[in-house]
What we know:
The protein is of the alpha+beta class. The protein has a single domain (74-198, 271-500), classed as CATH 1.10.630.10. Helix content is 51%, strand content 11%. The protein has a six-stranded mixed sheet. A hairpin with a 2-residue loop joins strand 7 and strand 8 (382-386). Helix 7 (176-196) runs antiparallel to helix 13 (295-326). The structure holds protoporphyrin IX containing FE (HEM). Protoporphyrin IX containing FE (HEM) binds at residues 127-128, 139, 304-305, 308-309, 312-313, 316, 358, 363-364, 367, 436-438, 442, 444-446, 449-450. GO terms for molecular function: heme binding; iron ion binding; monooxygenase activity; oxidoreductase activity, acting on paired donors, with incorporation or reduction of molecular oxygen.
Amino acid sequence: xxxxxxxxxxxxxxxxxxxxxxxxxxxxxxxxxxxxxxxxxxxxxxxxxxxxxxxxxxxxxxxxxxxxxxxxxxxxxxxxxxxxxxxxxxxxxxxxxxxxxxxxxxxxxxxxxxxxxxxxxxxxxxxxxxxxxxxxxxxxxxxxxxxxxxxxxxxxxxxxxxxxxxxxxxxxxxxxxxxxxxxxxxxxxxxxxxxxxxxxxxxxxxxxxxxxxxxxxxxxxxxxxxxxxxxxxxxxxxxxxxxxxxxxxxxxxxxxxxxxxxxxxxxxxxxxxxxxxxxxxxxxxxxxxxxxxxxxxxxxxxxxxxxxxxxxxxxxxxxxxxxxxxxxxxxxxxxxxxxxxxxxxxxxxxxxxxxxxxxxxxxxxxxxxxxxxxxxxxxxxxxxxxxxxxxxxxxxxxxxxxxxxxxxxxxxxxxxxxxxxxxxxxxxxxxxxxxxxxxxxxxxxxxxxxxxxxxxxxxxxxxxxxxxxxxxxxxxxxxxxxxxxxxxxxxxxxxxxxxxxxx
Length: 503
Ligand code: HEM
């Protein structure tokens, strides 16, 4: 009886999905772009979380699994404009710079979808999770905290962390997985110092403690939350009553409560200039009668800063270090300049290294928005009407690998960003737009923060040591292929070593 009911229910669900797929397919045909049909997609919660485990589908014979990569969240393909048709919502993919600017630039018409960005409201609404008229209120306060005058904190902390890191690992081979962990630790500590006034030593917390949430300090609790965001995703989707929820859910809930207590304490003590600016900015907006961030919104934004700033910057650093190790001539070129400055306004060669790294290996290969109304757009020379409630994804991978925009598009060549003005090296003005930090009003407010951190840490490493790469390094880098994380199997076959330079 039970099995029969289950079979009937499954048949109903399956028929519903097939019918929805057909309806969406017919709608997509009207757009006139190439179509890719996916039976499952990132809009299915379980597939979003576990779909990445089924890479075997891609290897099915006769191209039967060719849909697989398009079904995942953060797909990474170099195709230009097309429509992904699924049983849920259609997703139009664009890669032309003008189209991308149009969508990302008009935040009132193209909103961040709640399905994706709702997660960034883990502790309360944040600049990244809100849309429409709500967003400027958050962003205004955030912009004050990210002012230039706080960047010396970032510089100071990144130099200290890089120096301590070097002392701990010099002479040892670090495979790419260990390199990633080291950079993550560095980047997490810099944020803790600059944003929250917590001065930490490099390598102070062990990864296992963070994983198990054993130590309940501010840092470990924050890291536990960051690493377990998929649990939050499942919790919000499943909404199980507490009696039925698995242990992991309860642990996550407890960590969230602990983190709120830590944030409350930080807000009371206002241990950093950054935090003080954030709170003061919110208060002065209140005085000016323009609305204020509530306490929950302040918590939401503080958590968001760590979510948005840690992995992104650490990913840029780890990739650049590996690339510098694999390209000793470019490493030497960057080192020549690194020995000549002591503050964050000067470096241009390392800025070029960062730009070029993010162009090819940007942490966000695509960015998705949803159309609130019917929208007209010219794609590939054709006028297209995109229906309301359609996902549109900016394919940043395709834009940054476009041979029509970039000469030798797939080569990592930081020098492409340089020019000489009156015999002084500078970043070239007339380059195609680099969209790694996004574009338009909702671009990344942490851009300068990440640049200062990157330059401070890498210049310290370059001046004090040679970064040597193992023989498998270039091969491993080829498999990174613009992904936010490369596959562990390739991470472990290659390594780098910091070898101290003679003074
Ligand atoms: C290399 C490092 C970084 C990269 C590549 C990067 C990239 C991005 C991108 C692409 C977005 C737009 C996301 C979207 O619209 O879906 C974004 C937004 C954001 N980033 Fe970054 N980011 C970096 C570092 C940072 C840092 C260090 C912080 C904070 C300390 C930060 C804070 C934020 C915030 C708060 C937003 C949301 C802005 C809004 O919606 O108005 N980012 N970032």
